[in-house]
Amino acid sequence: MNKLTKAADNLEKPFLFIGILFMIFVITYQTFFRYFVSSSMEFLSSRTVLDFFGSALGFSGVNDLFVSWRERLSNIVGYAVWTEEAARYVFIWTTYLAIPLAIKRRANIRVDALFVKFSERVQNLLWVFIDLLLLFFTFTIFYKGIEFVNMQRQFPQVTAALRLPYYIPYLILPLGFGLMLIRTCESLYGQFKRTGIKDFCIGAFIAVLFAVPPFFAEDANAILLLFGYFILLLMFGVPVAFGLGLSALLTVIAAGTLPVDYIAGVAFTSIDSFPIMAIPFFIAAGIFMGAGGLSERLLNLADELLGGLVGGMALASIATCMFFAAISGSGPATVAAIGAITVPAMVARGYDKMFAAATVAAAGAIGVMIPPSNPFVVYGVTAQASIGDLFLAGIVPGILTGGVLMIVTYYISRKHNWKGENRKRTFASVSKAFWNAKWAVLVPVIVLGGIYGGLMTPTEAAAVAALYGLIVGVFVYKELNWRKLYESCVESANMSSVIIMLMAMATIFGNVMTLEQIPQQIAQVILNVTNNPVVIILLINILLLWIGTFMEALAAIVILTPILLPLALQIGMNPIHFGVIIVVNLAIGFITPPVGVNLFVASGIADAKIQSIAKASIPFLLAMLAVLMVITYIPQLSLFLL
């Protein structure tokens, strides 16, 4: 076992490092190559340019020369055809090679509100139960993956651009899920040593009782099985992604809704998507910029602008979170990057530690509203909505939320006499702070300007932003050394893989739901109760707020969007506006116990109890709920930029 896990260590992390860098460089090359070719072709086809060289400079034969150059450019267009396909396959390999590390570190997204209430002995029993179910699921995909690869070898086909035999990309199914098997066995072995043979056997017996019935079921109710198993798996602390996959697999086995072989294929095809690749790029951009010193310079700029006001450092923290939101696309990442600097600084200036942590936790929620935003990417892919439009629609709600949080912060600070730093601030000092932060300030310009200027897709803009952050951190600020770069790439792959795995399993779960027409049935039940759009939207908000208290935002999006979107469309809602409502609701969940991830991050930074930070967050929570109501019932706030 030790040799196997050591071999896995030697394979996983180096590939993740190389894979992330490869994807970033390849997609950036694709972006600039396409821009160069299209701009050159446009230049060479311009009548104005032809007239200038032909008439103004007296240059004869210019038309023939330009035609020749255009033909040469046409011949090299295919030089970048391979890039997207290569990046997609490396992306899939990187995802499934990172998940084994998440299993080893138990870092998958879980709903553990009930799990943590159990005694230590029961928790150990449940880990045996969880690991055995993971063993069953990963072995199934591993085995079916081998069958899939063998089928591809028997009936050979090649990929469109690289002309690779299809079985080569699909090798990641047996390889990746084989490594997951090894990591799960490693976890089981450790659990066996902790629990002893008696409790281990009890946990194993419970797992067998749980998983065996579908194999003997006849005329099983697919809807009851799908949601029943999923809810039970969540309650017992099974990672959400594997809960989705397991409930779908057990339902397929019992009800015969789909062939089991189909699940292995979907595990690959569901994430073979160019838009989804924006997620690891935006995560990498945020991590590179945090490790490279950009977040600290952003805070210095915000402090120069707002630090002299009442509650100045807290206001500067919110402003910095808003700006970092335009870089990272993640709430917890924003809290981690900014809170590590601002919470100690606020405490040093006399602010209450709980208030300082609550301020950053609440402001970090803006990280998923202001573009780029990973939840908007996930919603866009799930709902087949324009990611660019979602980014635009999130700007005003994000700024509005930040403004309201600043008002609350100012009021609380004035009440407690938390004044700003008493030092002279001049145009020169502000200019110096802006100059020092210039490389960070340019990031949103590059990302949003590239997207809405028609130069780049969101995925390409994310790759360019990641490369930009890497170059600035390594060569300009020189704070991102090679060790930090390696760790940042591995961390980016680990964080993104958990999200991507969730989306892959949610696709399988969603396909079973679609076949059973579950979304339509739920929509009809609600419409039978009331057909008043105002009431229906209010009920959806209440549901999302409740879900957000115990489920991670991305998991909620991939599960609930296929269920709620048809209902929203039936009452005439714009899908972009509905996406904003979902994201803002779930962003509020970042600061609501028991699974408020921003509270957990802030708690670690401030070394304080989550309950205390949650209590200090109540004024911010109420303010965000007020913003939610405004955004919900005044759709023009989100849509007028479209």
Explain what the structure shows:
The protein has helices at 2-45, 47-56, 62-76, 81-105, 120-154, 167-170, 172-211, 222-235, 240-255, 260-269, 278-291, 294-306, 312-328, 331-348, 353-364, 374-383, 387-415, 427-436, 438-452, 458-476, 482-515, 518-529, 533-550, 553-570, 575-588, 597-606, 610-616, 618-633, 636-639. The N and C termini lie far apart (56 Å). With 642 residues, the chain is an all-alpha fold. Helix 1 (2-45) packs across helix 21 (482-515), helix 4 crosses helix 21 and helix 23 packs antiparallel against helix 24 (553-570). It is built from 29 helices and no strands. Helices cover 78% and strands 0% of the residues.
Quick gist of this model?
78% of the residues lie in helices and 0% in strands. With 642 residues, the chain is an all-alpha fold.
Tell me the span between the first and last alpha carbons: 56 Å
**Rough shape?**
globular
How many β-strand stretches? 0
Number of helices: 29
Low-pLDDT parts are none
The percentage helix is: over 70%
* Major beta sheet summary: none
Query: What structural category arises from helix and sheet content?
Result: mainly alpha
Mean pLDDT: 88
Give the topology, please.
Blueprint: H1 2-45, H2 47-56, H3 62-76, H4 81-105, H5 120-154, H6 167-170, H7 172-211, H8 222-235, H9 240-255, H10 260-269, H11 278-291, H12 294-306, H13 312-328, H14 331-348, H15 353-364, H16 374-383, H17 387-415, H18 427-436, H19 438-452, H20 458-476, H21 482-515, H22 518-529, H23 533-550, H24 553-570, H25 575-588, H26 597-606, H27 610-616, H28 618-633, H29 636-639
